[in-house]
TrEMBL record:
This is SDR family NAD(P)-dependent oxidoreductase. InterPro entries: NAD(P)-bd_dom_sf (IPR036291), SDR_fam (IPR002347). It comes from the Bacteria. The keyword Transmembrane does not apply. Signal peptide: none annotated. Belongs to the short-chain dehydrogenases/reductases (SDR) family. GO terms for molecular function: oxidoreductase activity. The keyword Oxidoreductase applies. CDD domains: SDR_c. Pfam families: adh_short. Keywords: Oxidoreductase. GO terms for cellular component: membrane.
């Protein structure tokens, strides 16, 4: 099984690379930090194709697919994981940085999916895994661009699943809540201390990766992690009210 993972050099992407490789998959790992990709590949038991790329440039996002498939065979599983998170008061948010976020978090995964899907459909097998966020269901204050990006990706992913029913290609939409990664920790530093933040369940990248691998194996539609956040999928209006009412306030500095 050939699994391609974007944003594979740190955090959730790194954990996914290790989890799929542990199951015997060959992996294509794409990220900006080549030295981190090299270090991860040395620790994996199977074969790996590595590609350094700035995926915030969608026009270059698919350059690695042909050489990866030449080396490891057709991509069986595409994991759209690469993404960034900006946490700041909306009136102070950088427009250029926000639009870069939208390109990386939305346009690049859509372009990658469009690139690999014809081959999967021809083979009548394959999986698309989209790492969305609970922010798609319960948008957080101070994440104006991030909320928009993850809402867009989640909706594209959910819609594609229905479209592909009966084709042999399935789609897994992943909704991580708080996960203990560098990106997650840096994000929470932007909020004022609060009891809500201290009491919120926080998962691990390895724990999420195991659930994603299982979802691919069992052709599950969604992964919510930590699992206690699953209630938000069933009662989104209530969950959004709770998030809006009890989220810690964003730290505001003068512009």
């Amino acid at each position: 099984m050939h699994v391609a993972i974007t944003g594979a050099s740190v955090g959730i992407g790194e954990a996914l690379a290790r989890a799929f490789a542990a199951k015997g998959a060959v992996v294509s790992l794409v990220a900006r930090r080549k030295e981190r990709l090299d270090a991860i590949a040395r620790e994996l038991s199977g074969r790996a194709f590595l590609h350094q790329a700035d995926l915030s440039r969608p026009e270059c996002a698919t350059d690695w697919i042909a050489p990866a498939e030449k080396e490891l065979g057709p991509i069986d599983v595409l994991v759209n994981n690469a993404g960034v998170q900006n946490v700041e008061p909306t009136e102070l948010a950088g427009v250029d940085a926000g639009e870069m976020l939208l390109r990386l978090n939305v346009l690049t995964p859509l372009r990658l999916t469009r690139a690999v899907l014809p081959g999967m459909l021809a083979r009548r097998s394959g999986a698309i895994v989209d790492i969305a966020s609970m922010a798609a269901i319960t948008p957080m204050p101070g994440m104006y661009y991030y909320n928009a990006s993850k809402g867009a990706l989640a909706n594209a992913s959910e819609g594609l699943r229905g479209e592909l029913r009966g084709t042999g290609v399935h789609v897994v939409t992943v909704y991580p809540g708080p996960v203990d990664t560098d990106m997650g920790r840096k994000g929470y530093e932007k909020y004022e201390p609060s009891l809500t933040a201290r009491l919120s369940p926080v998962g691990t990248a390895d724990g999420l990766a195991r659930l994603v691998v299982r979802a691919v194996e069992r052709k599950k539609a969604r992964v919510v992690y930590p699992r206690s956040y699953g209630v938000a999928l069933w009662f989104p209006r209530i969950a959004r009210w709770v998030t809006s009412r009890f989220s810690p306030p964003i730290k505001r500095l003068s512009a």
